[in-house]
Automatic annotation (TrEMBL), chain A:
Regions crossing the membrane: none
Name of the protein in question: Uncharacterized protein
Organism domain of life: Eukaryota
SUPFAM superfamilies attached to this UniProt entry: TPR-like
A Pfam family it matches: TPR_16
UniProt-listed InterPro entries: NPG1-like (IPR043376), TPR-like_helical_dom_sf (IPR011990), TPR_rpt (IPR019734)
UniProtKB/TrEMBL annotation, chain B:
TM region positions: none
InterPro entries with a match to the protein in the record: Hyccin
Keywords from the UniProt entry: Cell membrane, Cytoplasm, Membrane
Species assigned in the record: Flemingia macrophylla
Name the UniProt record assigns to this protein: Hyccin
GO CC annotation: cytosol; plasma membrane
UniProt family annotation: Belongs to the Hyccin family.
Amino acid sequence: MESSEQGSVSVREFHANGTHMSASEVEAKLDQGNVQDAEDALREGLSLNFEEARALLGKLEYQRGNVEGALRVFDGIDLQAAIQRLQPAFSEKQPVKKGRNRTESHSVSQHAASLVLEAIYLKVKSLQKLGKFTEAANECKRILDAVEKIFYLGIPDIQVDNKLQEIVSHAVELLPELWEEAGCYDEAISAYRRALLSQWNLDNDCCARIEKSFVVFLLYSGVEASPPSLAVQIDGSYVPKNNLEEAILLLMILLKKFCLGKMKWDPSVMEHLTFALSICNQTCALAKQFEELMPGVYPRIDCWNSLALCLSGAGQNDNALNLLRKSLHKHERPNDFTSLLLAARICSEDPQLAHEGVNHAQRAISNAHGSKEHLKGVALRMLGLCLGKQATVASSDYERSHLQSEALKSLEEAIKLEPNNFDLIFELAVQYAEQRNLRAALRSARHFFNETGGSVLKAWILLVLILSAQQRYSEAEVVTDAALDQTARWEQGPLLRLKAKLKISQSQPMDAIETYRYLLALVQAQKKSFGSLQISSKVEDNKVNEFDIWHGLTNLYAHLSRWKDAEICLQKARELKKYSAALMHTEGVLFEGLGQNREALCATINAVLLEPNYVPCKILMSALIQKMGSDSEYLTVARSSLSDALRIEPTNRRAWYCMGLLHKLDGRINDAADCFQAASMLEESDSIESFSFIS
Amino acid sequence: MSVDGATATATSTDSPEKLKAAIASLSSMVPSLGSTTPSSLLTSPEIYPQISSLLRKPNSGAGDSNLCRWLYDTFQSGVPELQLLVLRFLPVIAGVYLCRVADRKPQAGFEAVLLALYAHETASRAAQPVTVTIPDLANPSIYHDASSSKAPQTKDADAAVTAVVSPALEPHGTVRSTRRARIVGVALELFFARIRHMPVASKVEFCRFCKTWAGQDGDMYRKLEEEEEEEGGEKVVAQEKKVEGRVPLPWELLQPVLRILGHCLLGPHNRDVELFEAASDACRSLFARSMHDVNPKAILPIRSLMRLSKDVLHRNPLDPTELPFSDVISL
């Protein structure tokens, strides 16, 4: 193409065959509707043949924005015939080795080809602009069909002139869009695949644009694409089998291209990938993608925060918290609200981290202004949760009650800001329950239950626990049965366990054994019928722990003094979990029942070594030591073990009871009476399972 | 998800009959239907708002509701067109249904329709979960060859991550309360699978219900990105109005909701201003909700949707498929 010397000219000019002429005369003729005259003028002025003149005219009309006119001009050319004329010229020469002459003749025919194809392409664009998408798509498809026939071995890199390549690339990119606009989605899908799977010699940018458009189509069109045809499947290569897979594959390829420097950064790629992988529950895989991004793509703090969200979403809270700690460092972005809330939330689940969580939550509260003000309630809620968790590991009674009341205060403050947040109501209920304010707990639990229409399993469980703490066993059982009725089989595990415990509390051990048997059958059925794939996360969460069942049964048989049965169950449980303080405690109980106090003591010592704060063992240990002798040394050791237990769990009824016995033995009747009273009061508010069972 | 699942695809011969019958019984409930012909029943824009408003009436979802019975029967007819017709009303049904759960009103009518949709999906999926295999670029795919990466890795297809998009379905004869979200969610998955056939009005209504379900005002997120810097800028006064209709949004419900919203925002028809606005609004509300729940699994995809929909507004007007214009017109 000749470069125009005039720089920017406002007058259009025709250039061809080494001469040029002004377009104004031709334009005037066109304006009068004389296409024929205009054509003649061009042919004369530039010594062109009919097709060339028409092509130039069409181009002129198109550039003038007169798309109808352009269409009229193009309709005059028999493009189909022109295409057919092109084909032999190419296909014969294609397989021949490159030679000077050949390339020469090549470029001539390529010139003719690009002339025809450009004319068709402009026709397509004109039709598109007129909203005739189907027609445009069909024309556009003809271009690609023709090109495929001409270059049936794929378009070679070097031999193609720029203009032809440009038109081919444009047509490849435009076709799927046209089908999409025409509402022909199946055609659009095959056009996209044709664009990406055939050899069009597209440049990187063009290819990336097509890939991106296809991704958008796959993810959001709501049209399920059938898998790619067998023809394109190469042995051993990965073939996506549905929209999400295909979109994710393309997005990953796009990211890789960026990493290899073949494409400039496009943030939307990462956003689409985030959406797609999140939808698949694969924030873990998303985290990997974030990690593999080159440094500098995102500001590092943004990257850490996104990673933290991914990891936390995938359940890797430890790693998430580590990243959040980095990003919340005073030199980074210490007041980032989302990070503060997420960090506090993660900390609220672990007693050892609760203290740290309190700091995060407090910082969030002090930053809750402006556009963040609506999140103040959330920050207060997190504070309450962290404080409540912290209370469970408080080192003194005073500290514990202080933390508990602070926790309650925060939650109550939060609920004033968010009266509709039923999760908050639930958390309040748990907090009340843990502090043995059972009436308030029941009220909140009911409120939550009604608001969520019984759709949340843990609401049923909390109700059962609170009722059992109020010693309203039969009501608790009614609720349990109703809950079982409202729950699918695979999620009934935790409820059945509660039911067994309720039966024990009501002195119906045989019913409890029956329930445990049913539970075992359920576990077996679950194992059989599920491949690891099919289990939804919900079922996974509610899966009964087989170990728990055997352990529960062991305790039950021990309670009934059926030592042989207990022994068998204990063995089963031990096979599932070798080192468990709870199990060792049960073992101790068994030995004690059989009168083997020394072995029993060994078991409890082992348990305490394994888990220094395991309260039931401390109690049992004290009882065992006490049995070994009534010298004051023994009694002192026994007492210290019990006080330890009470420090850890001041609401443990059994510990108070044993302490009472000890005092009585030691002759301190008043103290003994106090302890017994405490024990009996606690019995009135003892639930069949600790409230922490819920979370 | 195969189109027209296993539940009785009606033969072409009896479907006109069924269409007629469906109209006849519908016209007894919607008086203005009068002159409707079978084909206009499927396309007529007037019918949608009429039925939609009937579905919002106070006792609309009761077990003795004629309209619910009609929807149920019509869906069960197995005629694909009629099933699509019923599906259009899913947003209203699901929306009203979930919002009324806390009122403890009997809603057996709505539940019957939802269960019919659920059963349809259950049958067509044949106890198989919907899964996605996360590709590993180290292995070649149809779109790339792995040669550019290091040594060709051993094919460990077993190590490929398989993600469950929607777990296998078990049949349900009633709506058990703990399965409610799942049943509605699966119905919405069906809606998404047929969304290309759904009218804009139905999608708009869906978006509005999303906002209600979120129970959270999202206006403060109108300017998403500036959020970091803008400190003390415009103060959004926290107006804690009493919001009705906030519902639990477990993942099994939220996931299909997000897919539908993604379609409304970024799908082929996102140039419809009303739909786009409604969907953006729903997105902001759900984002606010996800922040209130401190739920990273929800924050991530919704944030991405919000960012992507912002790009739609500032869409690059440059058409890459346009040929360059020049004043010199040459061959």
